[in-house]
Specification:
The chain is mainly β and 1212 residues long. Helix content is 6%, strand content 42%. The chain has a 22-stranded antiparallel barrel. Strand 52 and strand 53 form a beta hairpin. Helix 2 packs across helix 3.
């Protein structure tokens, strides 16, 4: 396989160009682009500003004083005049190094220099002018300004930490965790620039993926990218680290400018070109010899896996200068960036495959390893057609003679499918079943990512500034997952992504106190997932052409065949999604007296299109059909390959989903007033209104809801005498039909959001701040298209799993249910379990509030402490509106002393099926089975199974935290930063038990009580031009000068652990089910979880099997007390927590001066320095397991073992 694969060719494998034309509507994309071009007269959007007051020595206001703000890097100056109250504000500035001056007639000029304006900062700079001549100037080099102009709580990650801290894969977004109150739940393995980690980022309990993402102040959120999941948009563009200036995380935003989020705002800014040319060329190389081995490999004695990664690129910025043609200094500036990321791993995969003789029915040598006797014993294959009562009331089967399946019983389709398994090439391992891990194959990974960025800043005049930006990235990943070569392969073939981002800003000054700003961005992002080779002739497997003809686009893919205990054959097809987004934000800022008024409208258009949703045909099998007792498994009987070879399967489906193209509009006018009440007190007053219009599909391909009152027309086709509650009611409804609106749900028109913040400067060193704000989250519901999609389920038995339908694999889906759209009306989805979105959905409301203090102890040390609280109302939840009657279910519920067999196989549990052979039920089990479980007919809508209603809005969450942030900076050589968060998040809403209507209220599953971050960059002050040995000679400086060290440490305490709900059941005594009360007279009664207790274990067919106490059981781990019986608790979490996680990364660098500003930096970066594993598994909560109460390590680790990389940068 070539490593230098073409991403364009890879993406074109799925015909992206043609698909985009047909399904994503290039016409609409072009409309968006043209609209953006109309506004390409803009400058990057910023909320940074200087504000303050000019007074005379007596404290009286100086009106009409001239205030000049100059960017010291670009020379661009902005002037304004103070109001009658002596106040001034200069908004829409770029982050950078500034000087300010104030002058008025009769006073000497005062200047402040070396003031760093950070992203999102309102810096308060006051002037006290002395009486004198205007030609006299008093210059003061300023300290960093405290955040005295806003009540917001947040954190700025400055450029030093962005560029000098160790970042695995160079994704600056991961530094968002350095802000107190911010948690990143993404696996550390997957935090690369293209991994969309913002989907796993939560701020102040607002939930993962609910933050507003900005780049240079412009919306950087693509459309959903997956039209079926209404989560927050994906990131449109992630800049390489070398192009990032800094970014700010506003955890409690009180400005009305921000909205459509419930988790804060992240605003990343790019570098700006200056009058001096700057740039870098870099390479980071990771090789296997630098890495440690994983915990699992060390434990099993295996060598570490091979890996090679190269990340290289170049960045250049400066003035636009064409000698003798154009000199852009002080006027036109550029930024260019290119980066390439290539990860290749030759890889080796070890999987389990069947023995070749099994395909001919010969299981005579089949054995299993018995752990108790530590020996191999025969594993017997039983004939599923020989079920009989053994005389003790147990239904058993007879074995095949000689453990050989006769040739006449072998299904040819199953045999052909199984022939795609390769033969084993590894010997068996002692102590394991002989077929386990017996096949080894190369598993090469090729992952290529490229990123291009271009930006132009233009200072048109003293009244107009503009910025144009274009960002592009693409990615292609190819890898086999199941180890099977050829048509039955499964993996990334390929997985591809591509994104184009355009952004523009324009700032126009009407008067010194009235400014206009326009922001716009267009993002077009596409994703392709091809899970296996295409162009396979599925009829070659022996499946009937009538079935193949109904598979649609999946007819050229090998079906997905899952055999329990063996690697899966085949794949589930492919999918292409394209998301378009347009965001525009025109606004004005008016400085009037003590008020700075900012007003505008946030307008967005989102479009999503999806083609070829993954589905296709699948079948799954296990040993159930060939085990001795039909509803009880044991290690000595049955085999999944044998079950399948007989032409039987356990489950499967054919999923057909519609193509999608839907649009959504969002409008949000806002007004913000920053009122400087006194020189020390500023109030931030704002109000915002959100109108999130519901999505609308272009062709009305969506459901609208469920009508619970309508009499269903199917009554004319069914035997109503068999219905205990009379004619059936209820049916699905659709958008745009019978007077229903075209939107998926009704719009919420009451989303008014008041905002309030304050900042009070107690003195020059201390600021008190706080606020309260209401926001509305990005709506979650995606389109519900049950009538426009279909699922045909495999039916392998007509008697509850006792006997199979013989040779059903030959034609596993005699009738494929095709999507009917809205054409069937109330007859849609009969015999199935439809689901729908609450048609009266409300946008979840998020309230945030805080109060805190920021104090500067010394010139270089600041400490900030805040109390932060949030509340979320109308959170999403779901409920089953078609529940089995509680009284009927109680007779089957072992938690209530019932007998599960009463609802499965006991006499009388099955009754006449009123829906049998009714045409409207064709393709479902209701159509083919002459009997039905009696309890099914107790449902309010018995013609359906479960009916789930989503987005019911009865959820709620609340978050309280103490957050502390400390910062130390010394002489621009040492930066130390620390945060501590002590918090608790609670949730309520939905049901812990839908049958018995027990509401849920518990600690949030991702609640982490403690979180600590430590980061620092230290440029050792030794060497030429430094504090120590500043005059040393050049040769010595090359050895001991120019060293720097960076470190990043993140700790988070463990998440809550859920007790196994199956550990408190009932006891079987004297042929009766007895609730397991704490009664000494009942043997084996328990009150806590004990590994030695008997328990009922739910099987794959939903039956329950009593697992007795083991004779060799010892020990008592009664540390979990579950005091309540007979009902599910509303709090599913115990007081036990999973282990906490922590990570420590370091960077060691040496700088070599070459010539002038040109220097070379060599770096060694190491990640997870202590090689500490974060296990993917939680505590083992099976009371009978030998590892009960210990961490399950078999599922591997979510983080990487210690990895190191070497880097080199040329900088100037």
């Amino acid at each position: 396989m070539s490593k230098n694969i073409s991403i364009k060719a890879a993406i074109n494998t799925f015909s992206v160009a043609s698909a985009a034309t047909k399904y994503a509507s290039v016409r609409n994309i072009l409309r968006l682009l043209c609209l953006a071009v109309l506004f390409l007269s803009a400058s990057t959007v910023f909320s940074q500003e200087f504000t303050g007051r000019v007074t005379d020595p007596s404290g009286a206001a100086v009106s009409k004083a001239k205030v000049t703000v100059t960017n010291q890097d670009t020379g661009v100056a902005v002037t304004t005049a103070t109001t009658g109250s002596g106040d001034y504000t200069v908004p829409y500035l770029r982050p950078g190094l500034y000087s300010l001056s104030a002058e008025a007639q009769g006073f000497s000029q005062e200047a402040r220099t070396q003031i760093t304006l950070q992203v999102g900062q309102t810096a308060v700079i006051n002037f006290t002018l002395k009486v004198g001549s205007i030609s006299e100037t008093v210059t003061v080099q300023s300290d960093e300004a405290l955040l005295a102009g806003s009540g917001d709580v947040g954190e700025v990650v400055e450029n030093t930490r962005v560029t000098e801290l160790p970042l695995n894969a160079g994704n600056a977004m991961t530094l968002a965790t350095l802000s107190a109150g911010t948690s990143l739940y993404a696996d550390p393995k997957y935090q690369r620039p293209f991994d969309d980690i913002q989907a796993d980022l939560s701020i102040n309990g607002g939930g993962a993926g609910n933050s507003q993402i900005l780049l240079d102040g412009v919306s950087n959120e693509a459309a959903h990218g997956d039209a079926y999941n209404g989560t927050n948009g994906q990131i449109g563009y992630i800049p390489p680290t070398e192009a990032v200036g800094e970014f700010k995380i506003i955890t409690n935003p009180y400005s009305a400018e921000f909205g459509r989020a419930s988790g804060g705002v992240i605003d990343m800014t790019l570098k700006n070109g200056t009058n001096t040319v700057h740039g870098s060329v870099y390479e980071f190389a990771r090789r296997t010899f630098l890495d440690a081995n994983s915990w699992a490999n060390n434990f099993s004695g295996n060598p570490k896996t091979s890996q090679r990664r190269d990340q290289y690129g170049a960045e250049l910025d400066g003035p636009v200068v064409f000698p003798k043609l154009y000199n852009g200094r002080d006027k036109t500036f550029f930024l260019l960036q290119f980066e390439n990321f290539t990860n290749t791993d030759p890889g080796t995969l070890i999987v389990s495959v069947p023995q070749p003789e099994w395909f001919n029915g010969d299981f005579s040598k089949l054995t299993y390893y018995d752990v108790a006797s530590k020996s191999y014993k025969p594993e017997i294959i039983y004939d599923p057609l020989t079920l009989h009562d053994n005389g003790s009331g147990v239904l058993v089967r007879d074995p095949f003679p000689g453990n050989i399946i006769p040739a006449s019983r072998i299904n040819p389709v199953a045999q052909k499918i199984l022939s795609f398994y390769p033969s084993p090439n590894l010997p068996s391992t002692a102590g394991l079943n002989t077929w386990v891990s017996n096949y080894q194959t190369p598993q090469p990974l090729v992952d290529v990512y490229r990123n291009v960025l271009a930006k132009i800043d233009q200072n048109i005049s003293s009244k107009d500034r503009l910025t144009l930006r274009y960002g592009y990235w693409e990615r292609s990943e190819t890898q086999n997952y199941n180890g099977i070569p050829g048509a039955a392969a499964q993996g990334e073939y390929p997985h591809g992504e591509r994104s184009n981002t355009f952004a523009t800003d324009w700032v126009h000054t009407f008067t010194p106190n009235l400014l206009f700003d326009f922001r716009a961005s267009v993002i077009v992002r596409g994703n392709i997932a091809e899970t296996g080779p295409a162009n396979f002739d599925i009829t070659s497997l022996g499946l009937p052409p009538s079935l193949v003809s109904e598979l649609g686009i999946f007819a050229n893919h090998f079906p997905s065949i899952g055999a329990n205990e063996f690697t899966t054959l085949g794949n589930s097809g492919g999918q292409l999604t394209i998301g378009n987004s347009l965001a525009m934000l025109p606004s004005v800022t008016w400085v009037k007296g003590k008020h700075t008024i900012h007003a505008g409208i946030d307008w967005r258009i989102l479009q999503d299109s999806t083609r070829g949703v993954q589905g296709g045909m699948s079948l799954s099998t296990d040993r159930t059909w060939t085990q001795k007792i039909y509803n009880t498994g044991d290690p000595g009987s049955g085999n999944s390959i044998a079950s399948f070879l007989l032409g039987t399967a356990n489950s499967g489906s054919i999923n057909i989903s519609p193509n999608i193209f839907f649009s959504q509009h969002y409008y949000a006018p806002f007004v913000q007033d920053d009122w400087k009440v006194t020189p020390r007190l500023t109030l931030n007053l704002g109000i915002r209104y959100d109108l999130n219009e519901p999505p609308v599909d272009r062709h009305n391909r969506a459901d609208y809801g469920f009508d619970t009152e309508v009499v269903n027309p199917v009554n004319s086709q069914i035997d109503q005498s068999a219905l205990p509650n009379g004619p059936v009611k209820g049916g699905m409804t659709f958008v745009g039909v019978n007077g229903n609106p075209r939107a998926f749900y009704s719009a919420t028109k009451t989303d008014v959001q008041p905002r309030f913040g304050f900042a009070f400067a107690v003195d020059d060193r201390t600021v008190l701040h706080g606020g309260f704000g209401v926001m509305y989250r990005n709506p979650n519901p995606g389109p519900n298209q049950y009538g426009f999609s279909s699922t045909t389920s495999y039916v392998g038995s007509n008697d509850g799993g006792k006997t199979p339908i013989p040779q059903s694999v030959s034609n596993p889906y005699p009738t494929v249910i095709q999507p009917t759209g809205s054409s069937l009306g109330y007859l849609t989805a009969l015999g199935q379990g439809p689901y729908f979105i609450n048609p009266h959905y409300r946008t979840p409301q998020f309230q945030t509030f805080s109060v805190g203090m920021q104090h500067r102890f010394l010139k270089n040390d600041t400490l900030e402490i805040n109390y932060v609280g949030t509340r979320t109302y109308h959170n999403d939840s779901n409920d089953n509106i078609n529940r089995i009657a509680t009284t009927a279910y109680a007779n089957c519920n072992i938690l209530l002393g019932g007998d599960p067999s009463r609802c499965d196989s006991a006499a009388g549990s099955y009754v006449k099926n009123p829906f049998y052979q009714a045409p409207a039920f064709q393709g479902t089990g209701y159509y083919t089975a002459s009997t039905i479980q009696a309890i099914q007919l107790t449902r309010p809508f018995p013609q359906f199974t479960d009916i789930q209603e989503y987005q019911l809005n009865n959820g709620r969450s609340w978050y309280n935290a103490m957050q502390a942030t400390a910062m130390h900076q010394w002489n621009k050589t040492l930066t130390l930063h620390a945060t501590y968060t002590w918090s608790k998040t609670m949730d309520s809403g939905g049901y812990a038990d839908q049958i018995y209507r027990i509401p849920s209220r518990n600690i949030d599953s991702l609640d982490a009580t403690h979180a600590v971050t430590l980061s620092g960059v230290w440029l050792l002050p030794v060497g030429r031009g430094q504090y120590f040995l500043g005059n040393m000679n050049r040769v010595l400086d090359e050895v001991i000068g120019g060293w720097e060290f960076g470190s990043l440490y993140v700790y988070r305490s463990g998440f809550p652990w859920q007790v196994n709900a199956n550990s408190q059941n009932t006891l079987y005594l004297s042929n009766a089910w007895v609730p397991r009360q704490n009664d000494p007279s009942i043997a084996n009664a328990i009150r806590g979880v004990k590994p030695c207790a008997a328990q009922y274990v739910q099987q794959s067919d939903n039956s329950y099997v009593l697992t007795p106490i083991q004779s060799n059981c010892g020990g008592n781990y009664n540390f979990i007390v579950n005091p309540r019986y007979a009902a599910t608790q509303n709090n599913i979490y115990s007081g036990i927590r999973n282990p906490g996680t922590w990570d420590w990364d370091i960077n060691l660098a040496k700088n070599f001066a070459i010539y002038g500003r040109l220097h070379l930096q060599l770096r060694l970066e190491a990640f997870n320095v202590p090689n500490h594993p974060i296990f993917a598994g939680s505590y083992d909560n099976g009371p009978l397991d030998a590892g009960f109460g210990t961490i399950n390590k078999t599922s591997g680790q979510t983080n990487q073992p210690r990895q190191a990389q070497l880097g080199a940068k040329f900088l100037w």
